[in-house]
Each structure stands twice: as structure tokens, then as C-alpha cells.
Design goal:
CATH topology of chain A: Farnesyl Diphosphate Synthase
Oligomer: homodimer
Helix content of chain A: over 70%
Distance between the termini of chain A: 15 Å
Strand order of the largest sheet of chain A: 1-2
CATH superfamily of chain A: Farnesyl Diphosphate Synthase
Strand content of chain A: under 5%
Shape of chain A: globular
Amino acid sequence: MAAKTLQIDNRIKTYLPKEEGLQKTIFQASNYSVCAGGKRLRPMIMEETYRLFGGNGEEIYPFMAAIEMIHTSSLVHDDLPCMDNDTYRRGRKTTWVEFGYDMAVLAGDALLTYAFETAAGAFADTKYPMRVGRAIQILAAKTGMYGMIGGQTVDVEMTEKPMTNEQLDFVYRLKTGALLEASMMIGAVLAGAGENDIKKTEQAASYIGMAFQIQDDILDLTSTTEVLGKPVGSDEKNQKTTYVTIHGLEQSKRDVEEISHKAIELLKELPGENEFLIQLVQMLITREK
Amino acid sequence: MAAKTLQIDNRIKTYLPKEEGLQKTIFQASNYSVCAGGKRLRPMIMEETYRLFGGNGEEIYPFMAAIEMIHTSSLVHDDLPCMDNDTYRRGRKTTWVEFGYDMAVLAGDALLTYAFETAAGAFADTKYPMRVGRAIQILAAKTGMYGMIGGQTVDVEMTEKPMTNEQLDFVYRLKTGALLEASMMIGAVLAGAGENDIKKTEQAASYIGMAFQIQDDILDLTSTTEVLGKPVGSDEKNQKTTYVTIHGLEQSKRDVEEISHKAIELLKELPGENEFLIQLVQMLITREK
């Protein structure tokens, strides 16, 4: 897994801009944000899905970089003072602290745009322009108002307010799940998977996102700051509505089990060697940090 | 011109999201921003260029909506307190004043993303997927770090500092010019224009953007608040470097003439009936507000 992360890191870096020219600062701020680390889960799951369906071309690489740029763009804007007002992420200063509030707004915009520029670069290498076109549409749709940004909207509006079950489900499904769905669907679409299989990857990714997020809520309550590497109990302190506050700890644990089981059953229905994907799901869900 | 603006307004509206669902606020904020008015210059010049090269399909419409969404997205973020801190635009409250700082950040992101989602929708209607793919790449490149956002970067960094001629040229060329270049190039590409003609539209758009911007600087100095509908003399008050402060008023007037003449000469080299485009350029440059 660490080896795969490193491999993807190196791949992504080939798409990053050179830090030169009059607008150098925007390149620096964007690269700083992307290079802050992370497990590169989204590109990893995208590539695995692509291989699963027999994909063996180059057009997956720009999309792997693109999904990580979009994810990073959302973190840069999430950290802004007007949003979560976070000053540190993964042990480094957040982009707005390092480069200023205005430059962080621009860096988020720049990364979001550069994701589509990078993805559109796949047209140059492909024998399948319609697949690339559809992948771009999925990327945009799962990022936008009906996807991740839709989820962020409700999350932002309900800050410090109690959420209903319906609202929480909506936020988890879109804010966390939508980019995972995009990752798996794009892998499948670019490899030429059939419609039925594309739908299954979307559903599996949705389960994975939900189980991942519930496990996050559980760990915030049951782990220790030492193991997790970030303060525990923050949800309780902030009186935040989570899956655990609505359903209770025991039910939440059972639901993680059940939802991840559903994801794995769906993955097993897909063709090809999907052992790594199944392991990845199990690891994400049984993780202790 | 007003009739054309109205026609384009109605066309763009068909692409806007319905204001319903849990994330309703983001739809409202996005639609509020797009519907704030404006001359719709970018979609207009795009459609005209498309017709000029004999384009008669439907795939131009999503791109016309997309370029206006991107333009609007940049205005929404430009108005933020951490950027220009503007509270009114075209007589209406700016998006952040009306919907809050956090929601305005999300609305800008949403519109930027929705632009690519909308543009990618053109794959459904087209006989020419490679043209649509290239148009998306141009749209992203002219918007991003090497385009409009690159220009904004230098503009933001040099706020309240004197700019060199090179920096000012860079900001005008990218911040103002890049989206005009995208508009004309996309029109040409989607209509199947040859490479040489696409280059000419890019150069013509670049001249138009530059002449437009210099004329803006001249009007800020020579017009009256009544005619312009916004305070004049604001550049001088803010000690802003403009084309006029570097080159003087008389030289600036001569340069507008010369640059727009170059644009018109280039437009005349293009095939087809380009009278409206030439009139549009003349109007933009001789305008008094």
C-alpha cells in the first residue's frame, strides 16, 4: 500500500506545473497543497478499477492526477477561515496560512480548473474519445452541486446545528462518497466496462464511502489521540451530529460491518482479479486510525 | 445587441439548475450570481465566431453557458472580502453579502465545476467528439493558472504596489484577454476551422481584450460617474498602475486605435460574414461607458 502510494505520488508529480513565470506564486501554492501528502486513495481505487476491467492504456493517468487535484482543491477551500478555519493539516500549515487568504482562494480555483485541463489532456492519447468525454462528465458531475459541493453545502449550513438522519446521510453520501464513486466509475468507463458493471462500481463506491465515514465517527469516540494522530472527541466537543450520535455506538459498528459486506459482495460480482480492491475495503473499514 | 443579449440570457437559463433539494442554497446562490445581468459578451462573441466558420450544430450552446458560468464564478470570488471586498455589483448585493462568505466560496466552486459539466454535455449531441474534447481543453487552459487565474494571481499580488509594464501587460492579457480568446477559439474549433484560422481568432481576441481594457482605464479618467454608472477616478484614488499611468492619456488613446485596428484587420482575413463581429469590436472600443 505504501509502495503504491509512492508510485502514484510520482505519477501525479509529472502533471504538476513548473514553478516559474510571473504567476509563480499560484504554481507554488497549488503544488504545496497537492504535495502535502495523503494516502492517494482516490487515484489508487481508480487505477485498480481500471485494471480490473482490463484497461491497459495511458488515459487513466491524467484522470488519476485530476481526481487528486479536485480532492486537494476542496481541502484548500475547506480550511479557509470562512469555512473550517483550520491552520494545520497533516502537520503542515494549511495553504491559506502559508500563502494568504486570497491566494488560497485562487489556488483552490486553480487546482479545480487544472484538474479538468489535465483530464482533457487524455484526448491526445486515446483511441476512445467518447469514453474520455464521459469520464470528464462524471468527474464534473460528482464534484459539483449534485455531488461533493452539494454535500459541502448542507454540511456548511448545518454547522453547529443538529442534523436529521436524512441530512446526515446526504452529507456523507455526497461529501465523502461522490469522489469515490467518480474514481471507480471513471476507471470502469475508461476501460470500456458495460453499463451494468459501471452501475455496480458506483454502488460499491457509495457503500465504501459510507462505511469509511461511519468508521471515522466511531474512531473519534473510541480511539486515542496517540493512535489517531489527531485530537479525539472533537465531534462530541463540537456537539456535532454524527452517525454515532443518531444511531448509537453498537448499531454504528454493526452498520459498518453490514455496509462493507455489501460493498465486498458487489465487488465480487465484478469480473477480473479484484483481490486488492477487496483488501483495500477491508483495510479502510477495520482501520484503527 | 440588446436583443442578442436577451436571447443569450434565455439560452443560458435553460442550463441553470432547479432550486430544489437539500442543497437548495447552492443552486440559489449560483443562479443569483449568473442572473445578475451583464452584456453576455463572451457567449455572444463565441456564437458569432462559430457561425462565421459555418457552424450550425447545437454543441455551441453548452459552451456559451459554460463560459458565462466561469466568468461569473471569477466575479463571485473576486468580490470576496479577502479579494476586492466588494458589496455591490451592477446595483445588486454581491453573492457573499447575500448568501454569506462560506456559501460564496462554494458558489464560485460550484459554477466553475458546473461549467465543465455543462460543456461536457456537448458530447451527447455532437458528431465531432474530438472537437468537443479540444474545446474543453481550451476552456480549462484559458481559465486556469496559465490563463485568467494566472492573471488574477499577479493582480492580487500587486494590489497597492506599482506594477511594471511587463506585469501590467501580463495581467491585462490573461485576466481580461484569456476568456475572450477561449470564446473565439472554441467557436472556431467547434465549427471545424483550420489551425491557421484558429490562431488568427486567438490573436484577434487578444487584441480585443487589450483594447477593451485600455479603454476602461481611459474612461475611468475621462468619463463622468453619471455616464459610466460607477465612480470615476477610482484608479487614481487607489494609486493603481494602469495603462494610462504608464503610457499617458494621449498615447493610450492612440494605442486603443491601433490595437483595435489590428483586431479588425485580422477579423477581415477570416472567411464568412463577419460584419457583426467587426461592429462589436468597434462598439467595445469607442464606447463611452
